[in-house]
Design brief:
- The protein has about 400 residues and is α+β, with helices and mostly antiparallel strands.
- It has helices at about 5, 30-40, 45-60, 70-80, 100-105, 125-135, 170-175, 230-240, 260-270, 275-290, 325-335, 365-370, 385-395, and strands at about 65-70, 90-95, 110-115, 135-140, 145, 150-155, 180-185, 190-195, 195, 205-210, 220-225, 300, 305-310, 315-320, 370-375.
- α6 packs parallel to α7.
- The longest helix has 19 residues, at about 275-290.
- Bound molecules: pyridoxal-5'-phosphate.
- Pyridoxal-5'-phosphate binds near residues 97 and 221.
């Protein structure tokens, strides 16, 4: 590859690796970002920030959207809006990327980790209800964890892998105890629960646009809400809490959390392609589904009848009692064949960063963590590359002591 080719737009790096997920940049990204550079509107105000917020709000069906530097910042602000304070407790999924648990600690509160249900891998609504009804006491105004005596202040369900959480039971119990719900929909842009977009059910919804998400701005996030006061407060807190348009007067501690116009420009271009990206993800999932259905020892992801999943991350479960190799061995073998895969996150109740919490047991999450493997599922994954993934997996799952297909 010569230097001109290296600089050409969209030329992929020379590699025969099949990556887990890479961004797909094939729309108006260059055009919109160039416009920011050409017009000097590169920083945290500009028409693309406004447009990206409006487009996201419309997509989600929320009244307001506030762009942030990343999804973690959106979660941090959402917890502040919900009035979560030091020594409060917040219920959160244990089987998730660590960011929401960290955000809970940023405000000095404590996560209470709730197990996953084994079918769709989402936070178990029964676990949420059980904890609030049986492990807490309600004095008519405040709900307290019986074991710690701390106030339970919010619920933070995380929609993982592009599939929705079964929200109805969670929303019902939240309403009963006046608990704000913050949806971490960072992995669920474009997905729907009972025909409504994720992020539109809670008091606030949070999204991430980091490099591996279904659309990306390189790094970025969004907070959506229907609450005008929350939206105004979010705008204020994300821009250093400046109280006067001219004078540098601050009556609160704020944050520098605003997304830049350049990144928002990229986000606008990516948003134009979201439907195509989701369609591509769903096609990839369908092909995996069809070509691996007969393999013994691999449990393929399911979509609930109340769900429209974006299939953002295609994650299978390896049943080590049937499969000749376990998930970690499979990951290792695939890596040796230049196929990049990943385990799921260590359930956060196991993480030393969050060991100091009083949560109910999470046996399902432990099992899912042991069994899960995410397979290559970039929007641009070619059928040729996907066939190779399937072929290598089928070869590895074959073992002279084990039949290849279910009997
Ligand atoms: C479930 C979940 N929550 C929060 C985040 C944090 O988003 P960001 O990386 O944009 O801070 C991510 C992704 O990184 C995520 O997957």
């Amino acid at each position: 590859m010569n230097s001109t080719e290296k600089l050409a737009h969209g030329v992929p790096p020379p590699t025969d690796i099949i990556p887990l997920i890479v961004p797909e940049i094939r729309g108006n990204e260059w055009k919109y970002v160039k416009e920011c550079l050409d017009t000097n509107w590169v920083s945290s105000v500009g028409s693309y920030v406004d447009r990206f917020e409006r487009v996201t709000a419309d997509l989600v069906g929320a009244k307001y959207a506030i762009a942030t530097v990343n999804g973690t910042a959106a979660l941090h602000i959402a917890l502040l809006l919900a009035g979560v304070e030091a020594d409060d407790e917040v219920l959160v999924s244990t089987l998730t990327f660590i960011a929401p648990a960290n955000a809970i600690r940023y405000v000095g509160a404590w996560p209470v980790f709730i197990d996953a249900e084994p079918r769709y891998l989402q936070i178990d609504p029964a676990g949420v209800v059980d904890f609030l009804e049986n492990d807490c006491r309600w004095d008519g105004q405040i709900l307290r964890n019986r074991r710690t005596g701390r106030r339970v202040k919010a619920i933070l369900p995380v929609h993982i892998l592009g599939h929705p959480v079964d929200l109805d039971p969670i929303l019902a119990v939240a309403a009963k105890y006046s608990l704000p719900v913050i949806e971490d929909a960072t992995e669920g842009l474009g997905a729907r629960y009972r025909e409504k977009s994720l992020g539109s059910f809670g008091d606030a919804g949070c999204f991430s646009f980091n490099g591996n998400k279904i659309i990306t701005t390189g790094g970025g996030g969004m907070l959506v809400t229907n609450n005008a006061d929350w939206a105004a407060r979010a705008r204020y807190l994300t821009t250093q809490a400046k109280d006067d348009p001219i004078e540098y007067v601050h009556n609160a501690v704020g944050y520098n959390y605003r997304l830049t116009n350049m990144l928002a420009a990229m986000g606008c271009a990516q948003m134009e392609q979201l439907d195509t990206f989701i369609e591509a993800k769903r096609q990839i999932a369908k092909r995996y589904q069809e070509s691996m259905a007969s393999l013994a020892g691999i449990h393929l992801p399911e979509e609930a009848d109340w769900a429209f999943s974006s299939l953002w991350m295609y994650t299978v479960l390896i049943d080590e009692s049937v499969s000749p190799l376990d998930s970690r061995k499979l990951i290792q073998e695939l890596a040796g064949q230049n196929i990049q895969t990943r385990p799921l996150w260590q359930p956060i109740h196991r993480s030393r960063a969050h060991s100091n919490t009083a949560s109910p047991p999470s046996p399902n999450a432990d099992t899912l963590y042991r069994q899960a493997v995410s397979l290559p599922c970039s929007v641009g994954l070619t059928t040729h590359a996907q066939d190779r993934v399937v072929e290598v997996i089928a070869g590895l799952m074959k073992n002279k002591n084990q039949p290849l297909t279910r009997q």
